[in-house]
């Protein structure tokens, strides 16, 4: 990208920490003049920030191209009828930006582009001989976040690389698994080159859909995602996906006393009831109700966990399908209103609510499926009960209870590998996600090709996303000090900053000569040509974090040298390098 003078560009640095910024990356991106906020979750990328974005995008492009993907560009504005078959406009809910044009046509600003790319491929691909294909774009995405926060880590408009692959088979040459593994490896190279400390974890697919998926998570205490890893180092997953190892259970324990009802007015939450009853949350049962549907049939799922645990909706959905009845589909949209209408006392439900309901499935987590004292809802508004007993209140009334892992994993839980490992929780920032979509979109949108036997086959898809801005924020979170950003060299806005004490006379001549030579050597150079005192210049150089600083002053020039300082501190306060050796030193230090 070449050389640049500070006076010819816009770098509005600031010594003040912005009041609205609470995490280091947000603070430093504002202070270093990379971004400027123009509204909730909306940012200008100023020249330094744009240069970093371009460097990250170049790395992404190189690795995607090397992995056999082809770049294209799709519109951000998507006609709403593209969602008619997949109904993802419903799945995204309020996160989807919607608008109507002057002709009354509805559209959405794309959060991702599965429907658009599937429609594109459907128009041009009719035979298995045209597959596999892997297409990607780097483009602006939109999500109407309820609470944008942490700068570019959660915003409403952002740059994303999204890729989509298309196959006839899952296994074998040209199959989904082959491309998935190639994308997985490309992602590792991308994040390695960007200088990120990351973990790869098993993940849920969320509103994208599909089967297997992995997230690439930057390890950071400011991350909003919880990662659980076995202390044996052989398992990692995010909290939505993380399984828990085997835990013994026993529903046959004897009652601890007579079932007694207690008036608990306006206390539908666990914490309030726990204090009121003087019962630990771990000895209370938390009960969630969802409808299920199978064609014209419908019924209810009652999911039960301990009071200090959270029900995992995805696990309940999987248990319902895989262990109870494959035809049953969990219905979570509007479930609370439907449950109230059906007579469930929401906030006060117990497992006993299944009694008398023929189409009711009760699933209890092993930790909740135990004897001993339990307090739970009384299936009556403003009332709870003490001494609930599974055998007396449920099993003896003819209700079957399925016991399965249906809660979010926590720090200290056993590893699902059942090898003695213990799960440890940490925080992470999601920067990449790869999915095996299967035929979810091709089936919904009627995308099929003829195979070698001239039989129609649904096209199998994969999906691969990277948050470009999130890479930048994550790199700053793990590469900064009290003075500012410490960029990993491959994504720094410039490779070298030349800081003449005074940009005049011999210092100017040496500065200009080095600027030209270093630029010709393939490195990007910023020259701080401002008429400013050395102190503020040095502070700004540290703040914006360029890897190598060349300080040109009279004392060094008198010795035929310039001072070389590395932003990562590896040269201490710097060292004197002869002028004729500076270019090779910069090149070798990059």
Features of the shown structure:
BirA Bifunctional Protein, domain 2, YbaK protein, 32 strands, 25% helix, alpha+beta, 15 helices
Explained architecture:
The longest helix has 20 residues, at 47-66. The mean pLDDT is 94. Helix 1 packs across helix 11 (468-477), helix 2 (47-66) packs antiparallel against helix 5 and helix 2 (47-66) crosses helix 11. 25% of the residues lie in helices and 28% in strands. Strands 4, 8, 9, 10, 11, 12, 13, 22 and 25 form a 9-stranded mixed β-sheet that branches. Strands 1-29-28-30-31-32 form a 6-stranded mixed β-sheet, sandwiched between helices. A 5-stranded mixed β-sheet has the order 17-15-16-18-21, sandwiched between helices. A hairpin with a 2-residue loop joins strand 15 (285-294) and strand 16. The protein has 590 residues and is of the alpha+beta class. The chain has 3 domains: 24-243 and 425-476, BirA Bifunctional Protein, domain 2, CATH 3.30.930; 260-403, YbaK protein (Alpha-Beta Complex); 494-589, Rossmann fold (3-Layer(aba) Sandwich), CATH 3.40.50.
Poorly predicted tracts of residues: none
Helix content: 25-40%
Whole-number total of structural domains: 3
> How many strand elements?
32
The profile of the biggest β sheet is: 9 strands, mixed
Q: CATH homologous superfamily of the largest domain - what is it?
A: Bira Bifunctional Protein, Domain 2
Helix/sheet category: alpha+beta
Average per-residue pLDDT, rounded, comes to 94
Instruction: Write down the Rg.
Output: 29 Å
Shape: globular
Q: Fill in the CATH topology of the largest domain.
A: BirA Bifunctional Protein, domain 2
CATH architecture of the largest domain: 2-Layer Sandwich
Q: Give the assembly state of these chains.
A: single chain
Distance between the termini: 15 Å
Specify the number of helices.
Answer: 15
Percent of residues in beta strands?
25-35%
Would you state the CATH class of the largest domain?
Alpha Beta
């Amino acid at each position: 990208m070449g050389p640049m003078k500070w006076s010819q560009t816009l770098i509005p640095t600031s010594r003040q920490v912005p009041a609205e910024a609470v995490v280091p990356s947000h603070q430093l991106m504002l202070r270093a003049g990379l971004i400027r906020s123009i509204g909730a979750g909306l940012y200008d990328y100023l020249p330094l920030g744009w240069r970093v974005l371009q460097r990250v995008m170049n790395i992404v492009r190189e690795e995607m191209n090397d992995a056999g993907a082809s770049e294209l560009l799709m519109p951000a504005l998507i006609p709403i009828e593209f969602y008619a078959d997949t109904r993802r406009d419903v799945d995204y809910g309020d996160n989807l930006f919607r608008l109507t044009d002057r002709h009354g046509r509805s559209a959405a600003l794309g959060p991702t582009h599965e429907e658009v790319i599937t429609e594109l491929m459907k128009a041009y691909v009719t035979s298995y001989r045209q597959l596999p294909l892997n297409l990607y774009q780097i483009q602006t995405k939109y999500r109407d976040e309820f609470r944008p926060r942490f700068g570019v880590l959660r915003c409403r408009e952002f740059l994303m690389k999204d890729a989509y692959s298309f196959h006839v088979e899952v296994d074998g040459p040209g199959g989904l698994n082959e491309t998935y593994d190639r994308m997985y490896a490309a992602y590792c190279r991308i994040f390695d080159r960007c200088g990120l400390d990351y973990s790869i974890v098993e993940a849920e697919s969320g509103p994208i859909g599909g089967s297997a998926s992995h997230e690439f998570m930057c390890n950071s205490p400011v991350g909003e995602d919880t990662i659980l890893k076995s202390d044996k180092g052989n398992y990692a997953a995010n909290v939505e996906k993380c399984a828990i190892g085997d835990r013994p259970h026993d529903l046959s324990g004897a009652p601890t006393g007579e079932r007694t009802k207690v008036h608990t007015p306006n206390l539908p939450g666990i914490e309030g009831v726990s204090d009121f009853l003087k019962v630990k949350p771990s000895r209370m049962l938390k009960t969630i109700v969802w409808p299920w549907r199978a064609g014209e049939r419908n019924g209810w799922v009652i999911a039960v966990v301990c009071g200090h645990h959270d029900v995992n909706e995805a696990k309940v959905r999987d248990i319902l399908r895989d262990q109870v009845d494959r035809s049953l589909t969990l219905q979570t949209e509007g479930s609370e209103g439907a449950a109230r209408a059906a007579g469930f006392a929401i906030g006060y439900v117990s497992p006993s609510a299944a009694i008398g309901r023929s189409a009711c499935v009760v699933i209890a987590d092993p930790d909740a499926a135990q004897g001993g004292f339990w307090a739970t809802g009384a299936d009556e508004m403003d009332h709870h009960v003490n001494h609930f007993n599974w055998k007396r209140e449920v099993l003896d009334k003819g209700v079957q209870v399925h016991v399965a892992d249906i809660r979010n994993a926590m720090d200290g839980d056993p590893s699902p590998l059942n090898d003695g490992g213990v799960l440890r929780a940490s925080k992470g920032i999601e920067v990449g996600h790869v999915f095996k979509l299967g035929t979810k979109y091709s089936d919904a949108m009627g995308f099929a090709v003829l195979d070698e036997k001239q039989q129609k086959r649904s096209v199998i898809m994969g999906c691969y996303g990277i948050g470009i801005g999130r890479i930048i924020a994550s790199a700053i979170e793990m590469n900064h000090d009290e003075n500012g950003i410490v960029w990993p060299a491959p994504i720094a806005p410039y490779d070298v900053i030349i800081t003449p004490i005074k940009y005049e006379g011999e210092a100017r001549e040496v500065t200009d000569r080095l600027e030209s030579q270093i630029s010709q050597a393939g490195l990007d150079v910023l020259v701080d040509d401002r008429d400013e005192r050395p102190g503020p210049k040095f502070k700004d150089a540290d703040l914006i974090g360029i890897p190598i600083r060349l300080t040109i002053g009279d004392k060094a020039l008198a010795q035929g040298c310039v001072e070389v300082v590395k932003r990562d501190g590896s040269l201490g306060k710097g060292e004197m390098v002869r002028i004729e050796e500076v270019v090779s030193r910069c090149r070798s230090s990059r």
